[in-house]
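Troubleshooting: if your tokenizer reports a length mismatch, compare your output against this known-good record of 131 residues.
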Amino acid sequence: MTYPVNLKYTETHEYAKIEGNKAYFGITHYAQDQLGDIVFVELPEVGREIKAGEIFATVESVKAVSDCYAPLSGKVVEVNENINDSPDLLNKDPHGEGWICAVEISDPSEVNKLMDVAAYEKHAAEGGGHH
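Known-good structure output:
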């Protein structure tokens, strides 16, 4: 599995796809692979302010319930309503159609704290433990 080079990654297996002052959050291929078949996603509310590292969504699979931690701080401006009908989008296309929400970035300097693709691939290959 290759990870997109245009994404920024967290140690807890979320990503941020940055487009201008907006970032799309989701979980990585590694995370969905660990979780197995995803059956439900609790989406954040539009308008909610989240801080980097806070839980922004909860993903439920046949195996486990997993919290998703925000890669960046910002205000939720959009959520992916398609996930309500098709939570398996996170399994099929985690880096694309399976995005969870979009935020307006409040502190662009936080982007520098995220991993690039090379660092993340190394992290995932080492078993991806939380530090």
